[in-house]
Design a protein that fits this description.
By secondary structure, the chain is mostly helical. The chain has one domain. 66% of the residues lie in helices and 0% in strands. The chain is elongated. It starts with a helix and ends in a 9-residue tail after the last helix.
């Protein structure tokens, strides 16, 4: 049962959750512009979010795993 709970809650990605969140934030903003959902001006307005997401990945920020 522990394996199922770990799979459903993402426990197997404990050290990488922040990296995945950072990638999703950056990709979501760029994909919105690429699909035409936002203008270039709106994309430029989202640069702090993109930089923050990429910064999380670059700095390898991680939340310590509880034991």
């Amino acid at each position: 049962m522990n394996a199922v709970a770990s799979l459903l809650t993402g426990g197997f990605l404990a050290g990488y959750r922040t990296h995945i969140l950072g990638a999703i934030i950056a990709i979501q903003a760029v994909a919105g512009w690429a699909m035409g959902d936002m203008t270039l001006a709106q994309l430029i307005d989202q640069i702090p979010e993109i930089a923050g997401g990429l910064g999380l990945m670059t700095l390898r920020a991680a939340v310590p795993k509880k034991e």
